[in-house]
Each structure stands twice: as C-alpha cells, then as structure tokens.
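Co-fold these.
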Amino acid sequence: MSTAELIDIFFCEDVREEKSGRYSLMGVYPTKEIHVLQLPTIISQFNVILRFTGIQADTPNLQVKFIAPDGQDSRPVQAQELIPTTPDGESLFIICISPIHLSLEGKHSILIKVGDDINDETYFNVIKQNN
Amino acid sequence: MLHNSVNLKVLALFQKGAVTIHDYLFNYLWKNHGIQLDCRAIESVKPVDADQYDLVLNAICADAWHKERIKKIENYCKTKNKRFINGIDGLTNCNRRNAYKIWSKNNVECARVDRVPTKKLALALNMPFPIILRQENSHLGSSMKLVYNAGDIHAIDDKYFKKSTVAIEFKDYRSEDGLYRKYRCVLLGDQVIARHLISSPEWNIHSDSRQTERMSAHKEEEYAFWERPLHEKDELLRAKNLLKLDYTIADYALLPDGKPFYFEMNPCFSVIDPRAFKREWAYQLHPIHRYCEAYATFLFEGMEKQSTKFTSIPVIL
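Predicted complex below.
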C-alpha cells in the first residue's frame, strides 16, 4: 500500500473553476514567503492548494492545522478535494481561508493529516517588509 | 467565485432595531452556499412578501413582540405550503414558565418557574429556598438574585418586582471538583452543534465567567466537549421538539446520570461572539464554523444542498 505524500503546495489569492473543469489560480505567491507591510494583518482571501500522491481513493478526510511561530494554532481544518483521486493515487486538495489573520513574522507550520496519522509537514514564512 | 448563483432565497424576519444575524454567518451563507438571506424588520413585511422566497426564517426570539404579525405570516406560509422556521407556538412554549409546564410533564429535568410580580407573592411562594429571582427577557444574568430565606426577599427593593419578575427553583449543579459547568448547544432541525462549555466557581455563569487565570483549562475542557460524542443529543432534541421549536440554543448542566438539566432553551442568534475573530479567542472559531455549515444544511432541509469545493473558513494566527 502506498503512503500519502505531499508533492506540491501553492499559496494564492483565489481559485476559480472554469467551465472546462480546469482551475485558474489567481494571485499565486511565487514562493513560500508571504510578504506583508504590517503585523498583525488581515488577508481577505488566502487559498492553499495541495497536490498529493499515494492517496487512497476512499481516504476519509484530509485535515490541516496551521501553527504560528509562538504555537498559536488554527485547530484542524478540513481540506476539500478539487479532483477525484486518479488511479495512480494523485489528488488535489484546496483550503479556502477567508480571512487569514497573521500576527507574527517567521515560520508558520502546516501539519497535514490524512486519515488518523500526521503524514506531512510543510510551512510558509511571513516576512514583514520594510517601507 | 466572482458571481454567486442564488441557490436559496430566505426571508429573515427581525424586529426593528433588534439584534440581527451576525455578519459572518450572513456572508458565510452567501459566499459558500449561495443563500440569499434578506433580513427585514417584521414591521415592514406583509404576508404576501413571502411569495418571493423559498422559505421564511422567523429570527424573533420571543413571543412578547409582534405575536399577531408572526401568526399572520406563518399562517400565510401554511396556505402556500412554504416552510416557516420557528412558528409562534415554539416562541410561546420556550418562555421559562411555559417550558417548565411542558417539560415537567415529560420527564425533562428543569427548574420550576413561577411569576412573582410583587414582593408579597414572592414571600407567599411555596418553593424551597434558595430561590433565584430574575426578570424574564433579561440577558447575561444581570437581574439575577439568589435568595436564601424570607429575610433576603424582604431586603429587596419593592421596585424590583414587576410583571416580568419570576422565581426559579435553584438547582445546585456544582460538579465534584467544586466548579459549576454550563453547556451550550445549538439545535438546528435534527443537528446538534456543541457551542461552548463554561466552568466557574460561581453558579451564575455567563459569557464573561471564564477566569483568565484558568484559560488553558477552559480551552482544554471546551476542546473535549466539541470532540466528544454528544451522548445527550437525543435528550436535547426531545426537549426542543416538545417545545415545537425548529431552531434553538440549549443552555444546560449535566447531571451525574448524564441527563441535561435545562436552564433555558430559546432561539438566540448570538452564537457568534465577535471576540472569536481576535487572536486570544480564535479557538472558538472551530465550533462557529461548524455552526455556520450546520446552518446552511438546516436552511436547505428538504432540498438538495449544493456541495461546494470552495467552502471558506477563517484562520486567526
């Protein structure tokens, strides 16, 4: 049995479903760095796209917890499946956050849980820009 | 999601100048489910206005106001086979005294309630001490007094007693650890959402009763409440259905046998505390999000709820 593995993560402002069934990602953050002018700050829309391999077609759920550098966490939030899992176990999930409130600079962990186990961990960095 | 399609049109009735549905729920329903909630003051609504909507949500929380207006719109909806949420019977039944009458005949645990519009009547009351005195329709326990004997009643200013004053049997619901615990669930049709649990050394618990020095203990208790199976769910729904309410909150203690002891059950819409959008209270967004999603399911009851891949949630870090 294959193990779920995160192969890509994107952060963007919005995701739109086209009539063709494809998705347009709007305002993609080019890296894992989120630059802000001040802290705390509120970003009205923030979407996280997760691409997995090794997901079982009947995987019950995929939950994600965001953790700030000081340990403040979001509680687990449910990711939603954008496309049904392909026969070779590839799958795309989305978390639509509206709004996201950021308080601190630094590494924000993202814990990803597929089923009953924590399967992966990734992050984004919040960087306060100097004017 | 630039342009939402309208999947459900709901006429939400309020009384002029009164509390309306919290902006977050309003936006959540629209953005995530295409539910157009038109909030209107009942004073300006004619029964025929319901024709333009899929259903009518009566968001007035008591029968003390606009009884006839509510009845007219509800009856009109019946003739049109249109869903009307929280009819006048439910609002009348959830009044403390009426709820006691209904529940006490049906083995639902709650305190006896009697009206005491004068001090003389309070003194003549055949109810064991201690007794809680309060005004009906007051909030946050602001008018509550606990009296231990006739002398305490004598000491209260005569002006305190009015038409709305009630005496409530005091139930000592303290847990073994010496703390009082008040649970709140939201009941929407057949769904029950655990909303909060507040513990305090004081019996008169309200939203500000959480002690700041015990915040980590409060959080731990609430997380456990939100995640545990709600073994009291069937009892909560039974109590709600006896009152003929569709939507309500239930405030209760849990007795040693696990059964709820009800403080009140009424259609309160103040479920989303704005503090939850601040960092220190953000843990409360968890049940709030569940509540919002359950609210959408509740409004779509009997209809096909459109599933969405883009349900948004707030994250406060």
